[in-house]
Amino acid sequence: MLKTAGIHHITAMVNDAQRTIDFYAGVLGLRLVKKTINFDRPEVYHLYFGNESGQPGTVITFFPWPKQLKGRIGIGQVGVTGYVIPEGSLEFWKNRLKKFGVEFSADVRFGEKYVKLQDPDGLEIELVERNGGTVNGWSFGAVRSEVAIKGFSGATLISAQPHKTAEVLEHILGLECVGQEEGFLRFKTDAELGNIIVIKLTPSVRGLMGAGTVHHIAWRAKDEAELLKWRALLQEKGYYPTEVKNRNYFNSIYVHEGGGILFEIATDAPGFTVDEPLDRLGERIMLPSWLEPKREELEAILAPVAVQEMEEIE
């Protein structure tokens, strides 16, 4: 049976590119691994943040568009994006969030310590203390590798029809259902990152796409041969996946599952070093070959942005 290793990436909508870089790179210490554009709307940035090399299971991406309206997290969306932090690092993160004026709440769930917070656009985030997962070799400012976010812990899905979403997770993507607890149906994979997915079972408001919401969640495929097998399986089960799309750093398909959430399945390769060396990732605006002739025009439209160390609030 086909089995995904878990989350490949998560893509969200925000309003401001520099503010997003300041939070995810400046405060959370993630690496800006790719600065490119939305292939369908090239006047909008597409920013990728992850671990040192942007490995699958660590990357969150953003479409920052000032003109979009504020969204509402709810049915048909990813509700919470979770990150793994090393065991023993929770106090560091509590202190860091306080220093930058980020409100949070701390709790224990399923035996794990975590903090819950929001990014500047209102996206829900959790930092979960968990053993396992490769140490993130990227350091930025006070966020040294020994406390740095390793990658995704998982995600919470808010489905219009939880049983249909569960059907796709279990019988198409190959996740294992490990039980129902505290109003959530819980699934896992064998991977160490991006491996815990929960479906919220209690009622929620209808989700509205816009700034502060997740656009889609992507699942890992080993290669294009496996991707095509998933496409065929989805068709066999009565779904309508897209054709394979070339996203430069991976190939992928998209499908709306039965609970209304947009799923993507994306290949692990070729990755982010296909057009930049590892030590220069995220420094330059990278364009697909078919848009390279328009570089001068696009760079004139896109506001300059940069990774910068953030000043703490007194």
Given this structure, which CATH class is correct? Alpha Beta
Poorly predicted parts: none
Calculate the mean pLDDT score and round it: 96
Which sequence of strands runs across the widest sheet? 2-3-4-1-13-16-15-14
Total beta strand runs: 16
Largest sheet: 8 strands, mixed
Tell me the CATH superfamily.
2,3-Dihydroxybiphenyl 1,2-Dioxygenase, domain 1
| Shape by Cα distribution | globular
Q: Which bin fits the share of residues in helices?
A: 10-25%
The tally of helices reads 5
- Measured between the Cα atoms of the first and last residue, the distance is 55 Å
**Topology pattern, helix = H, strand = E:** EHEEEEHEEEEHEEEEHEEEH
Q: What number of domains?
A: 1
* CATH topology-level fold name: 2,3-Dihydroxybiphenyl 1,2-Dioxygenase, domain 1
Find the structural class using helix and strand composition.
alpha+beta
Q: Report the C-alpha radius of gyration, rounded.
A: 19 Å
Give the percentage of residues in beta strands.
Answer: 35-45%
CATH architecture descriptor text? Roll
List the helices and strands and how they pair.
Layout: E1 7-14, H1 17-27, E2 31-38, E3 41-50, E4 59-64, E5 77-85, H2 90-99, E6 104-109, E7 112-118, E8 124-129, E9 151-158, H3 162-171, E10 176-181, E11 184-188, E12 196-200, E13 213-221, H4 224-236, E14 245-246, E15 250-256, E16 262-270, H5 295-301
Parallel strand pairs: 1-4, 5-8, 9-12, 13-16
Antiparallel strand pairs: 1-13, 2-3, 3-4, 5-9, 6-7, 7-8, 10-11, 11-12, 14-15, 15-16
